[in-house]
Write a structure and sequence with these properties.
Length: 226
């Protein structure tokens, strides 16, 4: 990543203090991977590496319920959140089903927010498994390093994988996180960028990459309107 050129010095009028330059602000958008399943795997580590689905267990009888969360091993069979449970059971018959425990998920979500607040004074939750973390740092490399630290701490302290997108706006950071999820395949705990400890690390989006994302979105809209 090429460093940006230094800004031109601002004119200082006699008798007045020099104007202050706003400090850049970066947003790390944290998305906990397969959150409900990840919570269950903390309690049942013997299921790691196996197809696991959180939802109404088929063994309890016919249900109109849907899949709430699926491990990446189950996703390899096409199982996704919101898929009818009956269809998911046919697509992945060897999956282990776990009935949801929403009290547990709320408790773990609170633990995540507490950890994030130790990394930043400003944490904005958007759902039980997503939050934006404001990073008061000067440059994209420091923002990336801060996101990597958040990712490591989530894994170390709470045993939870997370995808993180980093940008100067929440929207672009969330888009980056979505791109990570779309390209993840079966590997857990990825984020934009190069490898770190066998896993992907967070990458601050450059202005060129943000323009590319906007251009791709515009092209998709034109294609749908044709």
């Amino acid at each position: 990543m090429q460093p940006s050129p230094p800004p031109e010095p601002a004119e200082v009028l006699p008798g007045l203090p020099p104007p202050t330059v706003p400090r850049p602000r970066w947003i790390a958008y944290v998305d906990l991977d397969a959150f409900y399943v990840s919570c269950e795997l903390r309690d049942r580590p013997e299921l790691r590496g196996h197809a696991v689905i959180v939802g109404p267990p088929p063994a309890h009888g016919p249900s109109r319920g849907v899949v709430l969360s699926a491990s990446y091993e189950a996703r390899a069979f096409g199982v996704r959140s919101a898929l009818p449970a009956a269809i998911a059971a046919r697509m992945c018959p060897e999956a282990t089903w776990i009935a949801p425990d929403f009290a547990k998920y709320e408790r773990v979500s609170g633990e995540v927010r507490e950890l994030l607040r130790r990394q930043s004074d400003t944490v904005i939750p958007f759902s039980i498994d997503e939050a934006a973390v404001v990073l008061e740092v000067d440059d994209p490399e420091r923002a990336r390093a801060a996101a990597e630290e958040i990712q490591r701490e989530l894994r170390r302290a709470l045993d939870l994988p997370a995808s993180i997108g980093v940008a100067t706006t929440r929207l672009v950071a969330k888009i980056a996180t979505g791109e990570v999820e779309d390209s993840r395949g079966s590997a857990p705990n990825r984020a934009r960028g190069g490898k770190i400890g066998g896993k992907k690390r967070a990458e601050a989006l450059t202005p060129e990459r943000r323009r590319e994302i906007a251009q791709n979105a515009a092209a998709q809209r034109r294609k749908r309107n044709q």
